[in-house]
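dumping this here so i dont lose it again. seq + smiles for zinc ion
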Amino acid sequence: MTTKSLVKTMKSLIKENKGPGFTFKQSEIPKPGKGEVLIRVKLSAICGSDLHIYQWNNWAAGVGIKVPGISGHECVGEVVELGAGVTSFAVGDRVSVETHIPCGECELCLNGNQHICDNLTYFGLHIDGCFAEWALVPEVCLRKVPDFIPEKVAAILEPLGVGVHAAQVGDVQGKKVAVLGAGPIGLYSACASLALGAESVYISDLKQTRLDVASQCGEFKVFNPAETPISSIFNGNNKTDVIIETTGSAQAFNEALPFLKKGGKAVMVGLFPGDVPVNLSSLATKEITLSGISGRMMWETWDLMEQLLLENKLNVLPSITHQFPLEEFEEAFRVALNGEGVKVLLRP
Ligand SMILES: [Zn+2]
Ligand SMILES: [Zn+2]
């Protein structure tokens, strides 16, 4: 047997250079180094950031993406090989991945804020990700997935965790919550708000298909701001306690802000393409808190999310609208980009 025949290859989506698109091709199956785990990817999911990388917009061009490299960071898989020193996992474990790779040494890491580590790098951005049959994951980012979580849901724990984190920071129990945007993150924020005991949850989007999917996930008050302006829903006597902003649209945020109660909280999740003019004096006089969130707490958010799933409080399956084989990624990205799909999965 020649050495060459021992080199196994895998299907993968490669970002070959700094520009639009991916290339579907065979690449070498990686070997786990110290502190790394090789997983067999069962399902991966397309994130908004993957759409940016696919289209290669300004955001993608500015985040230091590894090229050539494999994109994708949302997935469920199975551990197949352990690198040196890996002790918390065993071959056969079902796992998902926390995208944020902390350094473990900075002040933030040492104080329970690994998810916003000062030296943060990202799985599927700065190292190869999971749009492939196999993926290498740093042990520190791997998460065992309990058996009771269905495979499709296990593939979206990472974005679902953003919603859970947003609702947690919004302190939504007993509150009226307005979620701006019914894309995956908005939808998961709305689902988590209901799960955590919000009194009522409003959710807006310009796309009717997304509002329809939201209605299948929970008892939300859905509205399209192009047809039903937010000023016709909220007014002086009926304001919201919490806004969860996931659109990244300055217009959407500024239209909603006047309807946030005094003492209310706006949880900022969406990323805006540029600077946003905001009436800061109104925030001061109304004692409004703006809270940014980025990703999920490691691992408090995951613990809470699994508990809510165990209690059947997160009905997120309807959000998974499409699934394609990895080879058909062009169609998958088309469906995700034009808003036909909410969450689109890829099976390698
Ligand atoms: Zn994501
Ligand atoms: Zn750190």
